[in-house]
Amino acid sequence: MDSKNNYIIEVKNPYDKDAEPFNITVDDERVWNLIQEDRIYLLTYEYKDINKKVELVSIKSSSETK
């Protein structure tokens, strides 16, 4: 968690062997508490500024996307 009460997750496309990981900011503690390590999720995110701040817009577990 950073100093502004935001949570940071590192993500990577699991289906692309050349994908580079990047960080996404999660502003809601309730969402943060539901995210599990080593699970595959479908994410929607936005680039918020030129400094590469990326914010989570929506998240679904892979079982919800079928």
List keywords for this structure.
single chain; 66 residues; mainly beta; two-stranded antiparallel ribbon; 1 helix; 4 strands; 9% helix
What does this protein structure show overall?
It is a single chain. The protein is mainly β. The chain has one domain (7-61). Helices cover 9% and strands 38% of the residues. The protein contains one helix and four strands. It is globular, with a radius of gyration of 12 Å.
Which radius of gyration do the C-alpha atoms yield?
12 Å
Spans where pLDDT lies below 50 across 5 or more residues:
none
Shape label: globular
Query: How many structural units, i.e. domains?
Result: 1
Could you tell me the strand content as a percent range?
Answer: 35-45%
Give a quick account of the main beta sheet: strands, pairing sense, barrel closure: 2 strands, antiparallel
- The count of β-strands is 4
* Strand numbers in spatial order across the main sheet: 1-2
Helix content: under 10%
Q: Which structural class matches the secondary elements?
A: mainly beta
Mean pLDDT: 83
Count the helices. How many?
Answer: 1
Q: Distance N terminus to C terminus? A: 31 Å
**SSE run:** EEHEE
How are the elements arranged and paired?
Blueprint: E1 7-11, E2 22-26, H1 29-34, E3 41-47, E4 54-61
Antiparallel strand pairs: 1-2, 3-4
Compose a concise summary of this entry.
The chain is mainly beta and 66 residues long.
